[in-house]
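seq:
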Amino acid sequence: MRFINKSTILHLDGTAGLTAGILLLLLKGWLGHLYGLPIATIQFLAAANVCYGGYALLLAFSRVRKRFFILLLAMANVLWMLVCVMVIWQYFQTISYIGVVFLGLEGIFVMTLAYCEWKDRNELTVKCRI
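struct:
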């Protein structure tokens, strides 16, 4: 029994990215201190999340969804998981336990999204809706 439509994953992906990015921007000082990361790194994470979230939502609401753009979205999630790992690695001496947990869970979350988007790439493709 399927509880949600497969295209809902795109809405979830975009909303999560956009929300995370906006919250990171609004709370950058506090989160930088909490995570033990420089403000510039928090701003980078925020900007990337806002851009990615906007792209994913644009794709989610698009009347025509090409397979290439679904694959691009999935690959961006894989790339973002690598960014999460690299940030943890780069700031290993200063990042807090909460920062490691946050970025680790974000990496797991985006890899799960990448898997779902890759697995359902053909179903997520929309030729034309009239």
